[in-house]
Design brief:
heterodimer; A: alpha/beta; eight-stranded mixed sheet; 17 helices; disordered C terminus; B: alpha/beta; seven-stranded mixed sheet; four-stranded antiparallel sheet; 16 helices; 15% strand
């Protein structure tokens, strides 16, 4: 059996024609959050922390979480988007606090470093790579490399280690998380003007396995491969995370069967009784020193009007351009990579037994990014059926065109794409598959193409409007990761409250 | 020349065809057998093909030293290949358990077969070189050679192994091989010297192969028994494991997935050492929990204490506990412990069960299989022991079977160190169990209200444990390991230690 679904693009596309009924009801509220992804949810938490409870959150979908959503079948929960959080940087106190609140950090050890809950760190074995017809430990190609390849890997990681610790004259890290804390160092920022591939070539790297590995990493975090992604972003993947909050296993990540939907569910408690789901906001404007937002209730099929003092647009800019006037100009510079996720329920997952099934299973030189085994993070000895989620990002130079093509294809087509890719490592997977759910995210994540992260368009898009409408979304950071969304939400609230001290 | 010669050439080419087919069959048999018995099929097949081709080369090289009676030599080699190749699988099957250098014998067989096959083709070309034009000779010989190889490689997996089995296949082709020699003996009697002598040799070899072929089923049964070294009296495959019970004189042995679980001759040593130290020092022993141990042998020891009011046994495999509740022989071993009214058997995942358990226990006996994979490794993690702590009474005692401190000191001390992170008092001890070797345990007390030497109660009539704990917790240097990490779910270092230590013994 195969099912095809995705983000609600049909409802979203009604923003093009705006054929909504006239509002028939009005709500007055001091603070309004539009969008229930991590940015919006984090803003709700921050309001709560600041003692503010009179806010309302509107969400287009029937659930909160955005890219941190999940599905569930008889056997397991599984991610429908983001599925892990790398260990936070030690300097990122806001994030450490949040993890403490949610008992993901259980305390601090004698060295002052956080102690993470064993059950929420990836269980071993965490990663494996199918390379040269064998599964091997870790995702870095090792067994079967030439001597030259190995040398380049060593040199590459050395350079990344240097970038990780390097600081500019402003005493800021060259690459930090959230990105806005990074140094203004000019020569480093110039890396944003070229692609990662160009950087690779400029630095005399030739190794194909290294190229493929970097390509995999870029797609993993940004959706875009090495050919299209900015070199600054590409290096940030390796250098932004300081790996300084634990002493061993510092590349470990936090994960859950349902992926980051777990983090979203922690944040959801701050929005209880303050949320309207299935509400598509179609217009936001400042009028008489108030913000007027119009939203369409997709269940009752009526529209409402919300009058607020301040609004946080926790929505992506490709949506905002239809809600707020005069934004199309700089929205053009925002590109979003589509993603496909396929969750397979399999009776068994035989392979050549060269390395045991891990949490993250990557196939070298495959089209997709491999798959995540949802039940890896459970305590059971045996699983009746296994549930795996395959990831595919549509890296291309013309994402708009790619997106149009995606929506023309049917489920049979995608089924074959997924099987063909997985068959490299599991030749008989089709026989063992009981069910496949294909989930397409048309605008999966912001794409840090060259000149975007430090470009004018992004800077303009982030500016508030008349101190009434504020913006919080990862597309304003330039990379779509939990940490950025989390801080986007906090910062928007702090700005509204004129909090002199910005967070972190 | 003429008709008679055509027959001569045809016969010999047909022989080439048969030799090539049989040769490849022997090679495939060796490869299959090796991957079946030793595992890692890619490695085994590739080594065997390599050795086979190499020894063919050696054979070809040595063919130049044969000058006289080439045709006789050819027929004799034919008989020899049939006999050796045909019997190879039988011998390998029988020797698997008893010979330490099994691999050596395996490769010796491959080498000898390869060598002989390698001899034959150059030999044949020498025989025919004066009778046929060289160009035709080379092309004909190799054509038949390669066709034979193709036939063999197609027939082997599709027809031969399913129909005849591995042993049957090699014997069958041995017979074909020898039959060719017999045919040659009769048809070329004028060309051969002392054809009578050759004929006797060929017929005798054929009879040997035929006899073994007829009895191959019982040989196979015998060798499967040999794998265990005893007579198999019961087998059962549950969804979780394969249970095999064997019997040899007065000793019964239970194997789970081919790993020895207990031998009835000395299991009392293992189970007395597992149960009585903890039972004797715990503050109370009213409520006892056993995790794993579906054979009920630990429960048998626990029930010797009259103070015990309730025993809960949690074992994943219902097939296992059911067997030990119903089978007469097995019930005899555990003294019908699992049917005792004090005992409740719960068939579920112990980790999950412990996480949701609301009860508190006085003693917990943990008898899981060794941490040989990442699933089992979870049951030895820091979080697992933290979970166990939440279901303990103050001053409760916990004991854990922790593999062999002699064979796997790193694994042994890794578990011990992990337990130390959780409980205020932890110690280790070991006992000698002849069928296992030196075996070890980690014991812990959930508080400071008792000590490991504070014997609060004893039962009479134990054969092994004498309640003198300090006689068991001394470790010689060869059972000690330092610089050990703690086993956590996110590193599963124990599984790596275990693989490193037990892997090297196999």
């Amino acid at each position: 059996m195969i099912r095809l679904s995705g983000t609600n693009h049909l409802l979203g596309h009604r923003l093009w024609i705006k054929d909504f009924p006239k509002p028939t009801a009005q709500i007055q509220i001091p603070y309004l959050i539009i969008g229930g992804g991590i940015s919006g949810l984090s803003a709700a938490r921050q309001f709560h922390k600041k003692g503010i409870s009179d806010f309302l959150l509107l969400e287009m979908a029937d659930h909160l979480g955005g890219n941190s959503s999940n599905g569930q079948n008889k056997y397991s929960k599984y991610p429908l988007g983001a599925h892990y959080l790398p260990l936070p940087n030690f300097e990122d106190k806001e994030l450490l606090h949040f993890l403490e609140e949610e008992k993901i950090i259980l305390g601090y050890n004698e060295k002052g470093l956080p102690v993470f809950d064993e059950l929420q760190l990836t269980f071993a074995p965490d990663e494996r790579l199918f390379y040269k017809n064998n599964w091997q430990d870790g995702v870095v190609p090792k067994e079967g490399n030439s001597v030259e390849d190995d040398k380049e890997f060593i040199r590459f990681f050395k350079e990344m280690d240097a970038f990780r610790t390097a600081k500019g004259v402003d005493l800021k890290y060259l690459f930090d998380l959230p990105i806005r804390l990074s140094s203004a160092d000019k020569s480093t920022r110039d890396l944003d003007k070229i692609t990662m591939k160009k950087w690779f070539e400029n630095n005399n790297f030739r190794s194909k396995p290294l190229f493929n590995y970097i390509d995999y990493c870029c797609k993993d975090d940004f959706g875009l491969g090495i050919e299209f992604v900015s070199a600054w972003a590409g290096i940030h993947y390796f250098a932004g995370r300081k790996q300084d909050s634990v002493t061993d296993k510092n590349e470990s990540v936090l994960t859950w069967p349902e992926g980051n939907a777990r983090l979203a569910s922690h944040l959801k408690k701050y929005t209880e009784k303050k949320t309207l789901k299935n509400h598509l906001v179609y217009e936001v404007k400042v009028e008489n020193n108030k913000v007027v937002a119009k939203a369409f209730d997709d269940v009752k099929k009526v529209s409402i009007e919300i009058i607020a003092e301040k609004v946080i647009m926790a929505t992506p800019q490709f949506v905002n351009q239809y809600l707020i006037k005069n934004r199309k100009e700089f929205t053009k510079a925002f590109h979003y990579t589509p993603w496909l996720l396929a969750t397979l329920t399999v009776n068994d997952l035989p392979d050549n037994f060269s390395f045991p099934l891990s949490w993250d299973n990557v196939i070298y030189d495959a089209k997709g990014l491999g798959y995540v085994y949802a039940q890896h993070q459970t305590l059971n000895q045996v699983q009746e059926k296994k549930v795996i989620t395959y990831y595919y990002s549509f890296s291309s130079g013309d994402l708009k065109k790619t997106r149009k093509e995606i929506y023309k294809k049917d489920k049979e087509y995608w089924k074959q794409v997924v099987f063909d890719d997985l068959k490299i490592a599991h030749p008989d997977i089709e026989e063992y598959t009981e069910e496949m759910e294909v989930f397409i995210l048309g605008h999966g994540m912001i794409s840090p193409v060259p000149d975007f992260i430090f470009g004018k368009a992004k800077e303009n898009a982030a500016k508030n409007i008349e101190n009434r409408i504020f913006f919080a979304h990862t597309d304003l950071s330039g990379i779509s990761i939990f940490e950025e969304a989390f801080h986007q939400g906090i910062n928007a609230v702090n700005q509204i409250l004129n909090d002199a001290a910005l967070d972190s | 020349m003429g008709k008679k010669f055509l027959r001569f050439e045809f016969l010999l080419l047909f022989a080439v065809f048969i030799i090539a087919t049989c040769g490849l069959i022997y090679e495939l048999v060796a490869g299959t057998l090796a991957s079946y018995l030793l595992g890692d099929s890619v490695k085994q097949f590739s080594f065997i093909i390599g050795v086979y081709l190499f020894s063919m080369g050696i054979g070809s090289f040595f063919s130049k030293f044969f000058h006289k009676n080439l045709l006789n030599t050819f027929v004799e080699i034919e008989i020899l290949v049939g006999l050796i190749g045909g019997l190879s699988s039988v011998v390998l099957f029988l020797l698997f358990e008893s010979v330490a250098s099994f691999q050596f014998i395996l490769y010796l067989f491959v080498f000898v077969t390869g060598f002989l096959v390698g001899l034959e083709i150059p030999l044949l070309m020498n025989i025919l070189k004066d009778r046929v034009e060289f160009k035709d000779l080379v092309s004909n010989v190799f054509t038949f050679d390669y066709i034979g190889a193709l036939l063999a490689s197609i027939l082997f997996p599709l027809v031969l192994v399913p129909k005849l089995g591995i042993m049957g296949t090699s014997l069958f082709f041995g017979m074909i091989n020898v039959s060719i020699a017999i045919v040659l003996c009769f048809l070329l009697k004028n060309e051969l010297k002392k054809p009578y002598f050759l004929r006797v040799k060929a017929l005798f070899s054929f009879l040997v192969l035929l006899t073994v072929f007829v009895f191959s089923d019982s040989i196979l049964a015998y060798s499967e028994g040999k794998l265990y070294g005893e007579n198999i009296i019961y087998t059962n495959t549950t969804p979780y494991q394969r249970i095999v019970l064997t019997h040899n004189k007065s000793d019964y042995r239970l194997y789970l997935n081919n790993n020895l679980q207990f031998s009835s001759a000395d299991e009392y040593r293992y189970h007395e050492a597992l149960v009585h130290p903890a039972m004797s020092i715990a503050k109370n022993i009213k409520n006892v929990l056993v995790l794993g141990g579906g054979d009920g042998l630990a429960v048998r020891e626990i029930l010797k204490y009259k103070e015990v009011q309730k025993v809960i046994l949690v074992d994943l495999d219902e097939g296992m506990t059911k067997l030990f509740k119903t089978n007469t022989v097995l019930k005899g071993f555990n003294k019908n412990a699992l049917n005792n009214p004090k005992v409740t058997v719960i068939n579920t995942d112990a980790y999950i069960w412990a996480k949701s358990c609301k009860e508190k226990f006085d003693v917990v006996i943990i008898d899981f299989p060794d941490p040989s994979n990442y699933s089992l490794g979870k049951l030895y993690s820091l979080n697992f022991y933290q979970t166990i702590k939440t279901i303990l009474q103050p001053d409760a005692a916990v004991v854990i079977q922790t593999t062999s401190p002699y064979f796997a000191p790193k694994s042994f001390w890794c578990i011990n160190k992990t337990v130390m992170q959780v409980f205020p008092q932890v110690d280790a001890y070991h006992a000698y169990v002849p069928s296992f070797g030196e075996w070890g345990y980690t014991i812990a007390i959930n508080g400071f209200g008792t000590t490991f030497n504070d014997v609060k109660r004893q039962v009479q009539g134990l054969k092994f444990y004498n309640y003198q704990f300090d006689r068991f917790n001394y470790f010689t240097n060869d059972m000690i390991s330092n610089q050990i990490e703690i086993n956590r779910l996110d590193n599963q270092i124990l599984v790596r230690y275990f693989d490193e230590e037990w892997g090297k013994l196999q």
